[in-house]
Structures are given as C-alpha cells and as structure tokens.
Design goal:
mainly alpha; Rna Polymerase Sigma Factor, Chain: A; Arc Repressor Mutant, subunit A; 2 domains; globular
Length: 198
C-alpha cells in the first residue's frame, strides 16, 4: 500500500485508491478531488449509456460522487473502488429511469457510437456502420432494463461476473444466465430490425 510519505518521496508514483480513501477517512477530504478527477470521465460515460442526455448524465455523475463521498466509510475494499463507484452510478441511473416513467432510456448516444467507428471506412462502409449503429440503439432500447443493465456492465464496462454478482447480490450463475439471455435477445432483435429495414 502506498502511503502519503512514499508518494512524496516518489513523486512519479500515484497514490492508490485505497491510500486516498484512508486519508479521506482520517479527515483529509481534499484527497477526494483526486478520486473525482481519476474517475469522473468513466462515471459520466457509464451514466450516459443509460441516459441519452449529456447534461442530465453530468448531473447524475455528480450525484454519484456526492453519494460516494457520503458513504465512503461503507467501502470495504472487497471490490475495486471503481467497481463500487460504478455500482452507485448504475443505481442512480436506474432509479432516475424508473422515476422518469415516460422518458425512454437509450443506452448509447450517437457520439459514443461514432467514436468506435473506423476512420478508414469507405463511404459505403460508413453508411452501413451508421445504419447498424442506429439499429443497435433501437434494439438495446427495447431490452428489459434488468438485461440491459447486465449487458452494459459486463460487455461494455468490463465488470467481471464476480463484481457484478457482488453489486447486485445475486449468484454468479444468475449473472451468466442473464447475460446469455441479454445477448440472445439483442441478437434476435437486431436480426428482426435488419429484416424490417431491408
């Protein structure tokens, strides 16, 4: 574990999340800014996959950090801090979707999808990619929120089965089953949409 003294003696080394948390809990609350800086983009991008509204996603990301600060003493270190933090973000996003009622959630914004497109694509390939991205967004938006949740967390955000199971407090077998169902339903919806748009 990297201590404050070590980080001063070795300025090239960054303090670990755990060492920052220990300092914060001892009263050095300014260290929380380091955690915010370290994870704010990741949290924002994660929330944006649930809420297709950049401004609102920013608000929910900020709410995530406020909740994390207020509950930091509850972090036990069994999972990575980033996993715990994204768990809070997920809860904030899903609660917001449930409260919104009529507002439909969309998992991926056009900007995020465009970031992953090849810059070397031909014009025809670019059109096909845009159509596939649009179909993907539509299909994802029709998934049950519970299945969308597991798909986002594991397939897109890199959560392990164990991390997701711990966050949701469900068996790993259930996580694998949900992920399989989510992938199969997404594939089925994509095939149906491609046929409809043919």
């Amino acid at each position: 574990m990297l201590t404050a003294q070590n980080s001063v003696e070795n300025p090239g080394l960054l303090p670990t999340d755990q060492s920052l948390i220990e300092r914060i809990l001892k009263g050095d609350i300014d260290q929380f800014d380091v955690l915010v800086t370290r994870y704010r983009n990741q949290v924002y991008r994660f929330v944006l996959k649930f809420i297709n509204d950049p401004s609102h996603a920013e608000d929910l990301a900020q709410d995530t950090f406020i909740a994390a600060f207020q509950n930091l003493s509850a972090f036990q270190g069994n999972a990575k801090f980033s996993t715990w933090l994204l768990g809070i973000a997920r809860n904030k996003a899903l609660n917001d979707i449930n409260r919104a009622g009529k507002r439909r959630s969309q998992m991926v914004s056009d900007e995020i999808l465009q970031e992953h497109q090849s810059t070397e694509a031909s014009p025809l390939e670019a059109i096909e990619q845009k159509q596939d991205s649009s179909l993907l967004k539509e299909a994802l938006d029709q998934l049950d929120p519970d299945l969308k949740d597991v798909l986002i967390s594991i397939s897109m955000e890199g959560f392990s089965y164990e991390e997701f199971a711990e966050l949701r407090q469900i068996p790993i077998g259930t996580v694998k089953s949900k992920l399989y169902r989510a992938r199969m339903m997404l594939k089925k919806k994509m095939q149906k949409k491609k046929y409809e748009h043919f």
